[in-house]
Automatic annotation (TrEMBL):
Name of the protein described by the UniProt record: Glycogen debranching enzyme GlgX
Superkingdom of the organism of origin: Bacteria
GO molecular function per UniProt: amylo-alpha-1,6-glucosidase activity
The Glycosyl hydrolase family 13 catalytic domain, residue ranges: 164-572
Cross-referenced InterPro entries: GH, GH13_cat_dom, Glyco_hydro_13_N, Glyco_hydro_b, Glycogen_debranch_GlgX, Ig-like_fold, Ig_E-set
UniProt keywords, alphabetically: Glycosidase, Hydrolase, Transit peptide
Length: 695
């Protein structure tokens, strides 16, 4: 017996169909068929277009009868489809009046904004139709993955150490040694490595479906691609070209398996999401989806129908339109519920605060709804608190008590200081405290501290190049940031000079030492832990090459740096006082301030003066930390070009200072620290840091 609401009422060829269910939007499996539902406010008609997999021409087109439209939603159930072998799209008819923002074209077959899988790019960089690209079409997937009891981990935010990576770059180079390089499956094989390093959260650069052939071109005999993927085609579908199993339609399961394996190893997964613009570009861009479905709903338009470009990529999504806002929320909820992701980093998040005229809003509806959404209630939310239109909101982003921020001020200040700029010291003290000047009412966990990220120099390049070297991008070295706060330590690029090599390693360790002993949430760039390089390219957005790839052969060459970072992460995990989400610097149960700053002499520091030599000390109260005994962690920083004599603070009787880490080469693991011979003072070498433990 069939239920009345799934009984076909009409027929076209061998297919039967009837009016559908409005929700959910997209294509969803129902008894004996598929329910198709899609929104358009200003179209006058809609047609469902069905293809057999890989075929150029549809096998049937079914116009939606007018009675199948409720409000602004077209819905239809189609029976007798083999969901394993069909692809689908839509035609929308309506007025074409660009000056009014209307761009309907019934000759275009458009991608469903809610498609859960997208065909046409199942193998990275391959054109299946000779030189002609296959169109992007929706596919239907079964939501039947066996999670074996898995759920998002919900690690306390203050305890996170984030590791940013690009799925393809991480294992694409032959030196990675994985069976399926450049894929979700290949990344799964590297989980033991990440677990050994100690990170407990990976941030994946865009994994939503994008078109790597967007703006592709030949430069110097090499194809340049839309490599990073910050140009979304569909917000609900994983990037098929990142899956070894995509030719078999299994990209969703491959990504889910990766996330499950990360969770089994205690590592969260957050996605770098790009809701600020799409791959359709400006007025001259292609029709893919939104433009031909409901242009005025999905995009911010000028009074003459052109596209506002606060993203720097041709268009800007109309994020605070109620329909677009609901789509973003639906996408976020879907990734949390169907893929078990633990959180999101929002690219150019300040755009999400703009109204329909492009002006920033005090209480942006989209951000408020994300912050208070029931499904996202435990998800980590991170904002890149600026956009390409000049809106910079670091410290003032409308966080609604939930969003953390990429702290660009932390990055810039630490880079400037380590180069030898003592005037940055007063600001650096605040950054180490957790940026209390920026996040006084939100706590240090609002600050995502970082020195490097995908956008800019790697850590090794930061200490090896004074200038960017982006010639391989084919833009005459005009792309990429010019203000990098980098210093090559005396020679531009690679060198065999042992003194410069040693100085560069110390400088990398110096920055990592401060980063991982600062309050706030630290973020590492993949490969920095063993000095991966991009050979001075600070904008590798188009490079599907060794410039972007992690070169794993560098691991053996720089294993000492890996061990140093590994032990810094372990140190942070060992002492809860470093991770406190508090700015209270008053005395605790130890009788000492929880966090205090010193010059080379204890308790003597003018925090407003320029300075290249300072130290800071955490005093861990055992009762608050949940440990058996009190402890002290002392970090000494010498950014001066000569050795400096330091005097140590006096500590409680019965405790002794032990050396844990030194950027000059000392690495001692927990329980194996070296007791200092002189408990009152030490000499710290030029451009060096060290970490002492009192116990």
């Amino acid at each position: 017996m069939q239920l009345i609401d799934s009984f076909p009422t009409q027929k076209i060829g061998d297919l039967e169909y009837r009016s559908g269910r409005i929700f959910p939007f997209g294509a969803s499996i129902v008894d004996g068929g598929v329910n198709f539902s899609i929104f358009s406010k200003e179209a006058v008609s809609c047609t469902l277009v069905l293809y057999h997999h890989g075929q150029d021409k549809p096998f049937v087109e079914i116009p939606f009868p007018e009675e199948y439209r409720i409000g602004n939603v077209y819905s239809m159930m189609v029976f007798g489809l083999n969901i394993e072998t069909i692809e689908y799209g839509y035609r929308f008819d309506g007025p074409y009046s660009p000056m009014d923002g209307l761009r309907f074209d019934k000759d275009k077959v458009l991608l469903d904004p809610y498609a859960k899988s997208v065909s046409g790019r199942s193998v990275w960089g391959r054109k299946d139709n000779g030189d002609k690209l296959k169109p992007l079409r929706g596919q239907i997937i079964r939501e039947d993955y066996d999670w074996e009891g898995d759920k998002p981990l919900e690690i306390p935010e203050k305890d996170l150490v984030i590791y940013e990576l690009h799925v393809r770059s991480f294992t694409r180079d032959d030196s990675s040694g994985v069976r399926h390089p450049g894929t979700f499956a290949g990344l799964t094989e590297k989980i033991p490595y990440l677990k050994e390093l100690g990170v407990n959260c990976v941030e994946l650069m865009p994994v939503f479906e994008f078109d790597e052939f967007e703006n592709s071109r030949e430069v110097g005999g090499r194809t340049l691609y839309n490599y990073w993927g910050y140009s979304t085609v569909c917000f609900f579908a994983p990037k098929a070209g990142f899956a070894a199993s995509a030719p078999f339609g299994m990209e969703a399961d491959e990504l889910k398996h990766l996330i499950k394996k990360f969770h089994q190893n205690g590592i969260e997964v957050i996605l770098d999401v790009v809701f600020n613009h799409t791959a359709e570009g400006n007025e001259n861009g292609p029709y893919i989806s939104y433009r031909g479905i409901d242009n005025r709903t999905y995009y911010l338009l000028t009074p003459d129908g052109r596209y506002y470009n606060f993203s720097g990529c041709g268009n800007t999504m109309n994020c605070n339109n109620p329909v677009t806002r609901d789509m973003v929320l639906d996408a976020l909820r879907y990734w949390v519920s169907a893929y078990h992701v633990d959180g999101f980093r929002f690219d150019l998040a300040s755009i999400l605060s703009r109204d329909e005229a492009g002006a920033p809003m005090v209480y942006p509806p989209l951000l408020e709804r994300i912050a208070n959404d029931a499904v996202l209630g435990k998800s980590l939310l991170i904002a890149e608190a600026w956009d390409a239109g000049g809106l910079y909101q670091v410290g003032s982003f409308p966080a609604f008590g939930r969003f953390s921020e990429w702290n660009g001020k932390y990055r810039d200040c630490l880079r400037h200081f380590i180069k030898g700029s003592g005037e940055s010291a007063p600001e650096l003290y605040r950054r180490i405290r957790g940026s209390d000047d920026l996040y006084r009412f939100r706590g240090p966990r609002a600050s995502i501290n970082f020195v490097t990220c995908h956008d800019g120099f790697t850590l090794y390049d930061l200490v090896s190049y004074n200038e960017k070297h982006n010639e391989a991008n084919g833009e005459n070295n005009n792309d990429g940031c010019n203000d990098n706060e980098s210093w090559n330590c005396g020679v531009e690029g690679d060198t065999k000079d042992p003194q410069i090599i040693d100085l560069r390693k110390r400088q990398m360790k110096n920055m990592l030492t401060i980063l991982l002993t600062s309050r706030g949430i630290p973020m590492l760039l993949s490969g920095d832990e063993f000095a991966n390089t991009q050979w001075g390219n600070n904008n590798a957005y188009c490079q599907d090459s060794e410039i972007s790839y992690i070169i794993w052969s560098l691991f053996d060459k720089n294993k000492d740096l890996f061990e140093y970072v590994k032990n810094l992460v372990a140190l942070r995990n060992e002492y809860p006082v470093i991770r406190e989400n508090s700015f209270d610097l008053g005395n605790n149960g130890t009788g000492y301030p929880e966090l205090s700053f010193h010059s080379a002499k204890p308790w003597q520091l003018d925090e407003g003066a320029s300075n290249l030599c300072f130290s800071y000390m955490y005093a861990q109260d055992h009762a608050r930390a949940g440990t058996k005994k009190d402890a002290f962690i002392y970090v000494a920083v010498n950014a001066y070009w000569e050795d400096v004599y330091y005097e140590l603070p006096i500590i409680p009787q019965g405790m002794k200072w032990h050396l844990r880490l030194s950027s000059s080469g000392d690495v001692y693991s927990k329980g194996k620290e070296k007791t200092l011979g002189d408990q009152g003072s030490f000499m710290l070498g030029a451009r060096s840091t060290l970490v002492l433990i009192a116990k």
